[in-house]
Amino acid sequence: MGTAGKVIKCKAAVLWGMNQPFSIEDIEVAPPKAKEVRVKILATGICRTDDHVIKGAMVSKFPVIVGHEAVGVVESIGEGVTTVRPGDKVIPLFLPQCRECNACCNPEGNLCIRSDLTGRGVLADGTTRFTCKGKPVQHFMNTSTFSEYTVLDESSVAKIDGAAAPEKACLIGCGFSTGYGAAVKTAKVTPGSTCVVFGLGGVGLSVIMGCKAAGASRIIGVDINKDKFQKALAVGATECISPKDSPKPISEVLSDMTGNTVQYTFEVIGRLETMVDALSSCHMNYGTSVVVGAPPSAKMLTYDPMLLFTGRTWKGCVFGGWKSRDDVPKLVTELLEKKFDLDQLITHTLPFKNINEGFELLYSGQSIRTVLTF
């Protein structure tokens, strides 16, 4: 492309500080350095994790460009890039895969050493590619997709089938893959089992889809917002309950409902109290509980160790356990083969300039996933 090697001026949604609205700004995006890729974003989803930066639940430096669930096209590549080339359709990866660190090399690992979950805010060389009003702007989780153009390390880019619709496939960059993988890859849900999903947002619905795909015979959705029940039932839940409907602890309610046979529980909210509730709700001896929702930073969890002593398994789950560069292209292929339906998760599609409206839809509970198009 004619822009290769040049600074690109474009629009981006910049967060200048905590608890502020997004400001659509003119920014400069520098060319990619060695082992980096510059990508033109086509569509990006609004995820609760982005809101964690606004609210301060995730550590970040400001100003910053957030966004991490997207599809784009490679505009140009830096020296030494071998896995993608200009014109390739790609998904940015908030969870990189360098294929060299011990997590990448272990068949059970996926938390690459190059991940930026602590708000470092720069690329691998320690610098940023964004400038706005003469000031450097921070990156977010190696991706920063709330921008017409972004620069990523090669380890944070997965080439996908060019036939994939950007406004659907972008969900594979975070929400869908995280939930679906939590069931089929992290928990390894077994056929005929009983599963309980705490939190029925976009990721929670994706967990339900994963439990159904794995052959679970009973899938119970739990949420205080009953407006979410219909969608949960539509994607595969067999029943839904609200913790507010009984004075009993939710673990007792679920035990009574199932005859104490809950094998898998998933916490997809990110609340410390609900994490303990989910752990308490799976079978005391052979149950497995998976923490899927991002926990608030700088918070400590207190629980009764007897919950684990009796035999339960408590697991964490980053990006559904997938190895990002290896597995994301495969998930896109499965999407094209209609092995799952992402239309059920997308409630709103808006132009990028309406990003603040998209977040209002998130806050009001009206949206499951809002996708912004460029």
Automatic annotation (TrEMBL):
Its EC number is 1.1.1.1, 1.1.1.105, 1.1.1.66. CDD domains: alcohol_DH_class_I_II_IV (cd08299). InterPro entries: ADH-like_C, ADH-like_N, ADH_Zn_CS, ER, GroES-like_sf, NAD(P)-bd_dom_sf. Residues 17-372 form the Enoyl reductase (ER) domain. This is All-trans-retinol dehydrogenase [NAD(+)] ADH7. GO terms for biological process: ethanol catabolic process; retinoic acid metabolic process; retinol metabolic process. Homodimer. It is found in: Cytoplasm. GO terms for molecular function: all-trans-retinol dehydrogenase (NAD+) activity; omega-hydroxydecanoate dehydrogenase activity; zinc ion binding. It comes from the Eukaryota. The keyword Metal-binding applies. Keywords: Cytoplasm, Metal-binding, NAD, Oxidoreductase, Zinc. It is an enzyme of class 1 (oxidoreductase). Its cofactor is Zn(2+). GO terms for cellular component: cytosol; plasma membrane. Belongs to the zinc-containing alcohol dehydrogenase family. Class-IV subfamily. Catalyzes the NAD-dependent oxidation of all-trans-retinol, alcohol, aldehyde and omega-hydroxy fatty acids and their derivatives. Oxidizes preferentially all trans-retinol, all-trans-4-hydroxyretinol, 9-cis-retinol, 2-hexenol, and long chain omega-hydroxy fatty acids such as juniperic acid. In vitro can also catalyze the NADH-dependent reduction of all-trans-retinal and aldehydes and their derivatives. Reduces preferentially all trans-retinal, all-trans-4-oxoretinal and hexanal. Catalyzes in the oxidative direction with higher efficiency. It comes from Peromyscus maniculatus bairdii (Prairie deer mouse). It catalyses: all-trans-4-hydroxyretinol + NAD(+) = all-trans-4-hydroxyretinal + NADH + H(+); all-trans-3,4-didehydroretinol + NAD(+) = all-trans-3,4-didehydroretinal + NADH + H(+); hexan-1-ol + NAD(+) = hexanal + NADH + H(+); 12-hydroxydodecanoate + NAD(+) = 12-oxododecanoate + NADH + H(+).
